[in-house]
Amino acid sequence: MQSEDKGQQHKLQLIFSMSTLTRRMRLRFQSLQQKNARPQDGEKLLRPNEHIYRVDFIQQHRLRFLRWDMQLERPGKVTVTGTSQHWTPDLTHLMNRQLLEPVGIFWKKLGAKEVECNEADAQEFGERIAELAQIRKVMYFLLTFTGGLEPAQLKGSVVFKA
């Protein structure tokens, strides 16, 4: 998390960090398999390429979305989906209906230096996060990695004007 002061302009960079919930959700999946049980109706079970991340809002009010800062060390794609669940930190029973729209899709092509995205969706998604920050101290995200990209190859954050 970084904060910059330039005159009256104050930028707040909130970094995506891997959540321990990824492990708990994987254990839930294993438990269901071992018991030969079915998930709850609508329950989201993590696929191997999906991971839960979190962003901690050190400031909640008067945030205005500025930009995404997504750095991919290699070609591939990451899809960032927000969750509406905020009343409990236990996402082991994350439901599909709790996944928010739009999603942020970021990709890097072979030989490219810059990460690309669908700017309209990324802008709308960032603005929605700024709104949700007013009522949350933490927000969870489902990140889906494709094209050979892995979590260790991502450095991501969202930047706001405070």
UniProtKB/TrEMBL annotation:
Give the Gene3D superfamilies listed for this entry: Olfactory marker
Spans traversing the lipid bilayer: none
Q: What GO biological process terms does the UniProt entry carry, in alphabetical order? A: sensory perception of smell; signal transduction
One Pfam entry name: Olfactory_mark
**What Gene Ontology cellular component terms go with this record?**
axon; cytosol; neuronal cell body; nucleus
Protein's UniProt name: Uncharacterized protein
Q: Which organism is it from?
A: Corvus moneduloides (New Caledonian crow)
